[in-house]
Fold each of these.
Amino acid sequence: MAICQSTGDPNFYSGKCQGSPKTERLISLIPEVPDHVRAMHLRRFAEYGNFDVVRKLLDSGCHVDGDSKVTEGSVDNGNVETPLYLAARLGNEDVVKLLLEYGADVHKARLQVHRPMEGAVKSGSIAIAQKLLAYGAVCDCTIVVQALLSEYPAMVELLLGQFTEKCQHTLFGRDLAEEMLERGLSSMLDLLYNRRCFRYSDGRIVAYSPVVED
């Protein structure tokens, strides 16, 4: 089918070709193609931030998380990134907001990785991270470490704010601090030190253990 020939064309998915008769015709055919093909196109249009077509696909009944019936009784929903993750990873804030409004699952991930929050960290978008958190996304140590190693101070501060001060003291150990030191991530090291996520003893990095005051 002609619609499948557009697969992989960034101009088609981003909307740069929209307005041409050929492109408009292809887009008009999308609601009529098999379910798994529509799901594939939803992921690509979300990735490239094409708000209008994403909304058309959702309104046509395309599953917001990109799930699709491939054969009777089977569902393709675990081996591909979700539209929400892809939109978050590319920093497409308006598409992320749209997908969330249509009920996208903030926890759904490909084989338990590529979670939407990880996409937000990769794009460095504070606005998207805040939106995902507002919709119930969970922040864990893995996601904070990604932000640390990417050297996004504002993102790290936002994510650490999801933990109590006591939890922050036990989130990170000496190995992570030493890795950041080796990578030259002094700003991130200072941030964690100021948060008392580790401490120094005789000039060496050690895991933080709160001092009990009398």
Amino acid sequence: MCPCTDPSTIHEGPFMDWESYYNWRDLPPESPVALLLHWPLSLYDAFCRFAVRSPTLRADVEGFCCIHYLGPEREVNMLPVFSELLAFFPTRHLHIDMIGPGVPTLRDGDLVDLREYPKCSDEECICKSSRRNNKSRSCARVTIKLWRGLYHDRYSDLDTSPHFIFAPNAGLPAFNSWQSTLKLISRSGVPARFSDYCEEAADLALRSLNSACPAAVIHSVQRFKAGWLFPTLHPNDFDNGTLNDSLQLHD
């Protein structure tokens, strides 16, 4: 179902909609691939938008990028879909630490190494051939390590320093445990991005951010055609730049 070969062209920058992504990956409009790839593509979108705000971020992660991914649930059973990130980072090693109570106890500490796309069911497809050309991403690699528990409880156990933090469908106002995590993120100085399902939930999330770290939060909310909203926590301004301190909704 997911793309199984390299794209014909290199893409830089965020996608504005699924149609743009489908065209880039030569997928038919009826393909249900969006049901699986919203996780890695949302992560890629977060990277692009942080890179826009920080001119030095792309240089800092030229060879290696580390992301702390908070609150995984169904993703834990769908880790191969994150191999699609190979198409976006053909010369980088992308490491993702997934931390959350939804990680099964038996998988705590598991490390997954993705270097190829999942193979499709078409026996004639080039993805089955040992001669397929993947030299353009010979250095590309996505590694994912699973950690069971709340971020603020497991933070001292992590052996990586993230370039940014991402929490999809976080539900900040719904769980009191987020307060300790938000305060930790604010102290760390690492930028973080959160998503939610609707405008009301995102607005409540902004209130949670302001409550947990009122002196540090500089926020914006961006609405995408897929319906996701992203409040963004910037403990420190990137490169001493000025970020908009208002609620921004982009249709």
